Amino acid sequence: MTPRERVCAALRHEETDRPPIDFGAMRSTGIMAIAYGQLTAHLGLDEPTLAYDVVQQLAQPSEAVLHAFGVDVVDLGRAFLTDPNDWRDWTLPDGSPAKAPRYFAPESDGAGGWRVRAADGTVFGRMPAGAQHLSQCYWPLSHLQSPDQIGDIAPHAAKVTWMALPSPPRHLDLMTDEGLQAVKGGARRLHETTDRAIMAAFGGNFLEGGQFLCGMQRFLEMLAAEPSLAEALLDRLFETYMAVLPRFLEAVGPYVQVVQVGDDLGTQTGAQISPAMYRRLIKPHHRALYAYIREHFDGFLFLHSCGSIRELIPDLIDVGVQIINPVQTAAAGMDPTELKREFGRDLCFWGGGCETQSTLRLGTPEEVAAQVRERIRIFSPGGGYVFNQVHNVLSDVPPENVVAMFQAAESA
Fold it and tell me: Which of 33, 126, 147, 345 is a good FRET partner for 399, with 20 to 30 A between their CA atoms?
């Protein structure tokens, strides 16, 4: 089987020759740039570390690393920023060298850290000295009190949704004809030059979208105490997403196999909001957005949603989700055996293959390999599984453990 065939077969719930493997096909299945530099040194590779996600400080795995680990799926973003001039020198928080996208232009905060400004001068992101990622520090609608104050949220969304997906260069703006053709051309080239499956990130966050715009506390208060105001904001988010979604699918739909959306609904101990609140306020927007994708895209719909979301999984299946990630099996109620038994016929699991919070960081290579084999034994029967660790590989993960993880997955 080719990698693309292997991924698509697994997502159709068919048995494959081995489990498909992901490493960095979206911004929660990869590796922090600090850990990546240590990994490539361990592998004896002489290559730059491309910190393509400047918020989480994630590295874009090279072709050599993808090949070494038998990776079957890649991020559409690899089709862009392919010229060496698209990158600038950058120093990672541990002092090691890397490269960042040239359009990333932070400024020193005068105390050993960094801050990022919008075009109007607003500081919206900070990375203090000692931190390993950027954090949002500005919420444009935090003082929202009535629907008539919402206005056009597109400029606000463009300013802060970088937290989920850093803004691309201006020439890739899908709302312009130039950008539409540039994205379409990049997707076509990647499709023709790789036999791996391709994932395209759309986003489409509603719970997170409100939190990015208003702040987590304010938006949760709004959902509970001012539901009509929350609903007005969610409606405007839907309108904003639908302004670009048809053009996005026109550009990438013929060339990618997976479209990724996101909404972190869980915490370590349970869902962020009750099932009743989800069904009343968030679910209708998920249903409408996901239905459009399913109706206009001949591929698979992937939802990234962290944490303990088991009580919401039936609703997610109901609104059209086909793939769930990261399968945070250490969270409450997320036992892998139970998830596979209860939802494995209707849902594909993408992740859950090794505990990033514990085993991958703190275990021996032998313990890592044993957990990988156990998770594959649980999730793979009958298809419906793509191997990946639970969320991104953190900066303190030993490279020997990363190698042990992928060797165990490829040989399973």
Answer: 126
